[in-house]
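pasting for the record
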Amino acid sequence: SVVFDLDKWKEIFATLRSNRLRTFLTAFGVFWGILMLMAMLGFGSSIKTGSQKQMRGMATNMLFMWGQVTSEPYEGLPPGRQVRFDTDDIGILRRLPSIEYLAPRLSLGGWQSSNVVSYESKNATYTVMGDFPELKHIVAFQYDAGRFVNERDIAEQRKVAVIGKAVREQLFDPADNPIGKYIKVGGVYFQVVGVIGTLRSGQQGDRDANTVFLPFTTMKTAFNMGNRVSFFALTAKAGTDGPELERQVREALFKHHKIAPTDQLAVGSFNMFVMFGKIDGFFLVLQLISWLVGGATLFAGVVGVSNIMLITVKERTKEIGVRKALGATPFSIVSMVMKESVVLTAIAGLLGVAFGVFILAGAEAVISRMPDSPLGPPTVSLGTVLQAVAVLVAAGAFAGIMPASHAASIRPIEALRAE
C-alpha cells in the first residue's frame, strides 16, 4: 500500500529536511493559523458559558414588569404620575391565557431596601420580599432545609419565613438548626420554615442569599401595605412569543392604570426572551468572526505552503525529469508533491491543535480558581477540533494543487537540460 510505503515516507521527510529553515517558517504559518482559530473559538465559548452561568437559575421565558412614571397625558390625566401596581392587577393578568406562572412580589421598603432582621442577640440588614409559591417555578432555588412558601401560607396568612443561605450563616450558629426558630422582621416574629440557596450567580445570586421571603398576604397585612404590588415576575406558556406576551401584559396594565398606549416609559420591563435572543445572536456572530479571522490566518499559512512547494518543485526539476524519463506517470508525480504538502500542513496544524488544547487547559485552570469570574471554561468541542483537522487536510491538498500541476507538466527532455 502507498500509505504504508516506508520508502515514500522517508523521501517525503528527506525533502522537508533539505531546507529546514524554510520548512519551519512555512509550517509556523499553518501552526499559528490553527492556534489562532482554537484560541478565538475557546475565548468565545468562555464568554458564552460565563453569560449562561450569570443567567442560570432563571427561566428563559421569564418577564419582569414594574411601575415607573408616566411621560404622556391620557384621558385628562397629566404626565408625571407614579404607576403603582395593585392586587386588582393580579386577577387581570391571571386571565391572560399566554401566562404560565404569575408571581406578584412585594418589597418591604422598596426595591433593594435593607431591613433589620434579628434572631436572639444577632441582627443584620437584608432584603425582605413578599411572595407567592409560583416564584419557585420562575427562579430556581436549592433547598438546604425545609420548603418554600406554599398555598396554605398564603390562604391563612401564616407568619412564616424562608431565609437565604447568607441569612442562615450570619444569624445562626453552624450547629444550630434554623427550622422552627423565630426571627424578627420589623418588630414582627416569623417562624423559619425553609433555608434556600440559589442557582443564580453574581449580584443576583448574592441578592437571593441575602433575602428573607415571606408569604405575600402575610407581609401585606403585617406591615400595612394595603393593596400594593411592587412588581410582577411571570413566565410564558410553551409556544408563546416573548415580545407578544409583553405586549399583551402591557396592554392589560395600561388599560387598568389609564396609561397612554404609546407611553414607553410608564412601565419598566426585563424580557428574558429578548435577552437570550440577543445573546444567541451575539455568539453566532462571534463564532463566525472567529472562523473568519482564524480561517484567514490559516489561509495565509496555506498560501505559504503552496509557494514553498512551488519553489521546491522548481529546485527538483531535473529529479522530476529523471523520474518521468524512467516511466513515472503524471499521477505519481502529482501524488508525490501533494503528499508532501499535506504532510507539512498536517504536522504543523496538529502541533497547533495540541498547543491550543494546552493553552485552553491552562486558561481553564486559572478561571476555575476564580468562582466569581464572569468567564466560563474556555473549551473547544471535539467536533470543532475534528473540523479543524479536516480543514487542515483539505488545505494541505489545496496548497499542493498548483505545485503538483506544475510538476506534472514538466517535460523530461526540458527537465534534463535544466541546471
